[in-house]
Amino acid sequence: MTQRLEVHPQNPQPRLLKRAAEILQEGGIAAVPTDSSYALVCRLDDKAAAEQLRRIREVDDRHHLTLLCRDLSELASYARVDNRQYRLLKLATPGPYTFILEATKEVPRRLSHPSRRTIGLRVPDHRATQALLALFGAPLLATTLIAPGETEPLNDAGEICERFQKVLQVVVDAGACPRAPTTVLDLSAGEPVLVRQGRGDLARLGL
User: Fold this and answer.
1) Is 151 helix (H, G, I), strand (E, B) or coil?
2) Phi/psi class of residue 128: alpha, beta or left (left: φ > 0; alpha: ψ in -120 to 50)?
3) Less Cβ around it within 10 Å: N or C end of the chain?
């Protein structure tokens, strides 16, 4: 049965987020709010949880999973970026952008793209998820919560609990999110390549 933790979107209760962090540490899958819909998250180093994340979304290993980070201080452990790319990341974070970057050797091969050695990275601008990441103390593996066979992400915690109660251990309910995916930019080959136009405005990045 899914635990639904109702938190204040601006001042989330630490005790509730601590419970969500404990469930994630134990290998659970969570739905968390972001600045561009809800996302599915799990522990980065839990192979079984990562496989379950893909099963829920019905995606294969060519689908980029994303590292949900609190800020860019965690970047160097997981991705290689040059100075120009880093300046772009600073402009965009926190915000509704996902960047595809060259993965370092610290990233398990099963989490990076099978042929390209790339990884997605995202710093969400949402207080509840930022606070959860701070309590958890490490990036979380994430993917946008889009139901199989659908194209629109989910943004209502009640609907998420109802539809995914058999496969999610916890839903962090901070109210409705925007119903739009992130803007995805591929920086792995140097120059930015737009993969998906979403909620993030390219003008903010000077593109």
Assistant:
1) coil
2) alpha
3) N
Helix (H, G, I), strand (E, B) or coil at 52: helix
pTM: 0.92
The Cα–Cα gap between 147 and 121 comes to 21
Burial class (CB in 10 A: 0-12, 13-18, 19+), 123: buried
Task: Choose among 101, 129, 94, 95: nearest CA to 117.
Answer: 101
Contacts of 200 (CB under 8 A, 6+ apart): 36, 92, 95, 96, 97, 182, 183
| Tens digit of each residue's pLDDT (9 = 90 or more) over 51-95 | 999 999 998 877 778 999 999 988 888 898 999 999 999 999 999
pLDDT interval class at 115 (50, 70, 90): low
201 within 8 A of 95, measured Cβ to Cβ: no
What does DSSP assign to residue 141? E
Mean pLDDT over 6-28 rounds to 95
DSSP state of 9: S
